[in-house]
Amino acid sequence: MPKSTDVPHELRALNKIFSEKDYSWDYADSFRDWVDFLVESFMPIRQGEYERLKKKHKDLDWFVRMTREWVMLQQRMVGDGDHAWYDALGTFYETLCGRGKRDVLGQFFTPPHVVEFMTRITTTPEQTGKGLLINDPASGSGRMLIASHAVAPGNYQFGADLDSICARMTAVNMCLHGCVGQAVCMDSLNPDDWRFGYDINRTLRYTGIPAIVPIQKEQCHTWRLWQREKAEWAEKKKHQPDLPPPQPPAAKTAKYGQLSLF
After folding, report:
1. Nearest-angstrom CA–CA distance, 63 and 37
2. Strand residues in 28-155 grouped as ranges (E)
3. Alpha-carbon torsion 11, 53, 177, 132, what sign?
4. Of all helices (H) and strands (E), which one includes residue 218?
5. Contact predicate 124/152, CB 8 Å
6. Distance in angstroms (rounded) separating the CA atoms of residues 200 and 184
7. CA 40 from centroid of its chain's CA atoms
8. pLDDT at residue 5 in the model
9. Which H helix or E strand runs over 187?
10. Number of H helices, E strands in the chain
11. Is the Cα torsion angle 241, 247, 252, 258 positive or negative in sign?
12. Which residue, 170, 152, 149, 150, is CA-closest to 160?
């Protein structure tokens, strides 16, 4: 298990609960199951993950205690006013990287102080409520998006990552921080390679209840945009045979009305 000295002080209580699974489960397997539990917990209509996890782990007590500590940690870190956002999931993920028996976990995300700097030069409080598209095509744990939301709420956050764990962490972080948008698992440089996705807090404004709802690729903002651009290109190519193929949205320079954090 990660030594206490290797874990940030604020995460040690969470790590203590997490370490109870050391003798039975791989780190990566346990973390992935917990993230699946968190996603399911925010879904108005259950997708069967609780049943799968209960069958695998005998009961859900460990998941409930992990989640309770995570929520209290987020409340302490953000609620005290010292932080506008806090990414406990991503930070704990990084703590576990390289410690699992399989290379399922193995990414390190943009450090929080760099996230703050990048956010401040791309996002201003004057953009609050403007309905802009805040696009992170390699979202990791979603910290760029939640940082942007902390500066200028009221915009549409879109996060994509090819790694399934990261896509789910992005969904959970966006949901908990009150972001509205989508979190999807896809290759941003090839939007046709779409795995799964979620609408985040679609009805938060009306219900006040944070929610994660599964979507199909036809509902995905970037996938739809890519299909439209390909169709337009195919039509133009009939009259312009030498017309170069279109580039995926993530490879383009940001357009008016759209912010890209990369």
Report:
1. 7
2. 133-136
3. positive
4. none
5. yes
6. 10
7. 14
8. 56
9. strand 180-187
10. 10, 6
11. positive
12. 170
